[in-house]
């Protein structure tokens, strides 16, 4: 199932992180697109892979052994720049801080978009007040919604209100029927929680906090995309989900899980993408010196 595949990817990411906390253990992620027909063939393949420790991640596609290779790719074209203007509606979950705030601030400065920011902090929070003041300088309008991103019903109620308000006032968005209108131009989920500590030192409550705080908002964002059909949807994740990192086992698990669930939603027809961000100096997680040091 989709959830089982996502959990498998999450477990692999968690074990990669565990390997960096305990280098003496032998861990390998072996992915089969289909399992060998004979149990002995499967056992022999696994034994050979553990005898060859050079590659921690191996995939067998149609019986052919593959390993991941990083390579530089060309930058995306500028064709997407024309997709935003001062009437474009951007909804950002977790948009008052970190990388998400940096992105919406950039969109506001370039295009003067209409911003709806969601976060768990109260609107009266000092940091939120300051962030909204800065956005108001360039955005067409800015509205902050205090909402729990792990609660789908609360998120859906807020987004429904945004869509209804816009559909009541819009005159020239596009010519499709009301049921087909894509009133939201960009939906972003940039929420994330991280408790940097080796797994052996984490409590069950710590792990549950990280898993819920990273996976539930992303799952809810996928469901919002299904319900409201925005033009574009982004789930922010991390390269930690691909490579693992010491002190971030639960974080790696949750980000890899979100990557797989988002990929599957895209295969089912949603215009949705997960972005595996690298560390940004001074932004998001890396604003904490201990985390930045471990990432480096």
Secondary structure tally, helices: 9
Give helix and strand order, one letter per element, not per position: HEHEEEHEHEHEHEHHEH
Rounded radius of gyration (Å): 21 Å
Shape: elongated
Fraction of residues in β-strands: 15-25%
Average pLDDT value?
85
Helix content: 40-55%
Please report the distance between the alpha carbons of the first and last residues. Answer: 35 Å
The SS-based structural class is: alpha/beta
* Widest β-sheet, arrangement of strands: 6-5-4-7-8-9
Q: Unreliable runs, pLDDT <50, ≥5 residues? A: 175-180
Number of strands: 9
Q: Characterize the main sheet.
A: 6 strands, parallel
Which characteristics define this entry?
alpha/beta; 296 residues; six-stranded parallel beta sheet
Short structural summary:
With 296 residues, this protein is an alpha/beta fold. It has nine helices and nine strands.
Provide structural commentary.
The chain is an alpha/beta fold. It contains nine helices and nine strands. Strands 6-5-4-7-8-9 form a six-stranded parallel sheet, sandwiched between helices. A three-stranded mixed sheet has the order 1-2-3, with no helix packed on it. Helix 1 runs antiparallel to helix 8. Residues 175-180 have low confidence and may be disordered.
What's the helix and strand layout?
Blueprint: H1 2-21, E1 29-32, H2 39-51, E2 57-61, E3 64-66, E4 89-93, H3 98-111, E5 114-119, H4 126-136, E6 141-146, H5 152-169, E7 186-189, H6 204-228, E8 232-238, H7 240-243, H8 249-267, E9 272-277, H9 289-295
Parallel strand pairs: 1-2, 4-5, 4-7, 5-6, 7-8, 8-9
Antiparallel strand pairs: 2-3
């Amino acid at each position: 199932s989709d959830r089982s595949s996502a959990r498998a990817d999450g477990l692999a990411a968690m074990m990669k992180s565990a390997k960096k906390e305990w280098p003496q253990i032998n861990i390998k992620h072996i992915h089969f697109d289909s399992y060998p027909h004979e149990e002995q063939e499967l056992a022999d393949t696994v034994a050979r892979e553990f005898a060859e420790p050079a590659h921690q991640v191996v995939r067998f596609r149609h019986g052919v052994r593959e390993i991941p290779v990083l390579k530089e790719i060309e930058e995306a074209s500028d064709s997407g720049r024309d997709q935003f203007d001062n009437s474009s509606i951007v909804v950002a979950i977790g948009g008052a801080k970190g990388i998400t705030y940096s992105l919406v601030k950039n969109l506001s400065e370039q295009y003067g978009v209409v911003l709806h920011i969601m976060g768990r902090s109260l609107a009266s929070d000092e940091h939120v007040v300051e962030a909204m003041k800065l956005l108001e300088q360039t955005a067409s309008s800015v509205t902050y919604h205090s909402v729990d991103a792990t609660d789908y019903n609360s998120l859906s109620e807020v987004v429904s209100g945004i869509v209804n308000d816009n559909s009541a006032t819009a005159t020239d968005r596009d010519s499709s029927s009301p049921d087909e209108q894509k009133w939201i131009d960009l939906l972003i989920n940039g929420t994330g929680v991280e408790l940097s500590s080796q797994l052996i030192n984490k409590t069950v409550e710590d792990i549950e906090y990280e898993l819920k705080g990273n996976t539930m908002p992303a799952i809810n964002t996928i469901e919002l995309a299904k319900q409201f059909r925005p033009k574009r949807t982004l789930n922010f994740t991390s390269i930690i989900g691909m490579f693992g990192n010491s002190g971030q086992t639960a974080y790696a698990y949750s980000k890899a899980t979100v990557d797989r669930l988002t990929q599957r939603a895209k295969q089912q027809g949603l215009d949705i993408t997960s972005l595996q961000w690298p560390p940004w100096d001074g932004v998001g997680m890396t604003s904490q010196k201990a985390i930045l040091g471990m990432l480096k």
